[in-house]
Design a protein that fits this description.
The chain is of the alpha+beta class and 164 residues long. 29% of the residues lie in helices and 35% in strands. The strands form 2 sheets. Strands 1-2-6-5 form a 4-stranded antiparallel beta sheet, with no helix packed on it. It has a 4-stranded antiparallel beta sheet with strand order 4-3-7-8, with no helix packed on it.
């Protein structure tokens, strides 16, 4: 009589352990699958993103204000400019090398998008953004500096600017 009960208890414990193990493995596999799908989507978006700085010119007489023309040459619209980085490197008036990350809204901003026919205030593929940026200190006259723009997915382009 005890043999039947013992076998039933062992079989019930076996089924319980198997069920818990299967549930644990299924949950882990589901989480891994969702994470992998997010990585694939992010990589696909990264591949489809491209920017190109066509020019960067002085926008004043103090050698501190500049504008850059940047085209969205990719396939992805960019709508949150605060997730982008703008970095400048140049010699200031006292011959000191300056490398600075400018802050969106404070020292750089998108002053216009052309043509902005579709999705106003969203930088769509094929559109060109005018980016105004202010250097932390005046640039040395007749010298070149470098401006680098990077998107939230680390897609970047750079160009030279000159203080005349």
């Amino acid at each position: 009589m005890f043999e039947g009960i013992t076998a039933s208890v062992i079989f019930a414990v076996f089924l319980l352990v198997t069920s818990v193990t299967f549930l644990f493995l299924t949950t882990g596999w589901t989480d891994l699958s969702l994470d992998t799908a997010q990585v694939i989507d992010r990589q696909r978006e990264r591949v489809d993103t491209a920017v190109a700085i066509s020019s960067a010119v002085e926008n004043g007489v103090a050698c501190t204000d500049f504008t850059a023309q940047v085209s969205n040459s990719g396939k992805v619209a960019i709508h949150d400019f605060s997730e982008m980085d703008l970095v400048v490197e140049y010699l200031n008036a006292s011959d000191t090398k300056v490398v600075a990350r400018l802050t969106n809204g404070a020292t750089w901003s998108v002053s216009g998008i052309s043509p902005d026919n579709r999705d106003p205030n969203k930088w769509n593929p094929g559109e060109t953004a005018t980016i105004a940026f202010t250097l932390p200190s005046a640039m040395k006259a007749n010298e070149n500096g470098t401006v680098l723009l990077s998107t939230r997915l680390a897609i970047s382009d750079s160009n030279y600017f000159t203080c005349t």
